[in-house]
Amino acid sequence: MEEETKSNPQSQSPIITTDQIQSRPTKIRRETPNFPEEIIAEILSRLPVKSLLRFLSVSRSWRRLISSRHFIDAHLLISSKDPIFSRRRAIATVLLPFYTLKHCSLHSLLAGAAADAADLDYPMKNPRNSARVVGSCNGLVCIAVNGKHFFIWNPSTRKHRKLPDVDGDLKRGLFITKYGFGYVEANDDYKVVGFLSGFCNGGRYESVVKIYSLRDDSWKVIDVFKDGLPFDDSGKFVSGSLHWGRRFGVDSKWEIVSFDLGNETRGVVNEPSYLDRGFVPSLGVIGGSLCVMCDYPKISVDVWVLKVYGVSDSWMKLVVIPYLDDPWKGPYSTPLCVGGKGEVLLVYGSGFVVYDEKEGSFRRPKIRNIDTFLEADVYVESLVSLDL
Hints:
Distance between the termini: 84 Å
Oligomer: single chain
Radius of gyration: 28 Å
Structural class: mainly beta
Number of strands: 26
Strand content: 35-45%
Strand order of the largest sheet: 4-2-1-26
Helix content: 10-25%
Shape: globular
Number of helices: 8
């Protein structure tokens, strides 16, 4: 027996019960890697907003870093240049069963067969209130509720700012008919433009244009559209200016009107060199560039892109999209993005379609939780604050 005990070292060890293990204090040595702050910032700047909001409570230094303007700008730049659009979301105005806003992954629309739409908890959300997207910029979305109340809102952080009512000091009978939203980099300001028109003073038609500055938190009247209002509803923001398509004259000539948000002056953008004029034009933004949709009804749509803003010779025909031969309602509208393989995602009727010109093929991603929608836009997830 003694021989057996000597040859088995385990038999010499005392027996430890489960109760003794649980009662013993455990000593765990935890060490936080001492990375330079630049490395930590580089890692964190590539994470989604949802994670960063949670990490605000990790430590004071992380809160200070994530809340800093430099970090917010760096994170926005990385998210905006993401080639697979994982940080961009499509936002749609849904009509039925009531007005509301929903969003879904842009990456899922472009690359997948289906996408899940989720409700947005936006300001003044109510089944009786109509909500329209005025525009989006740097992750901020401007919303018009009932065509009267405006909010600038960050869907990612859920922070918002209500604007003073635009018609507070105007005559009764004037209503918002067109609008636009954009950013002024020179003084770090966001501005909203509202076109109001209606019949006042015993049936006399009047119009007025007002502009709101987030930095000043006030509206003021501007007098730069005396010869008529732009034709399109929502201004397209590109390179510091808003753009609308406008028809004028006895022959209903179409032109692209620009409005510089910084110096608050208007101008005209030269159009592409079209070979044929038998189309219905409209404006859009794709890849951060101004584009013209030339719609030849039930035949095709030519998409022209201004590659270098302010350089007329840089207009390029990006793609020709044929109409689908089916009972789906058109027309094409609102190009949303161009994928890495050149495929184009755009709104078609009250749905989305992806067209691959190389393959000559179409794909209609299915959107769960959305039946029909009025319009769609795109915003990028960001930490951008409304506190200027």
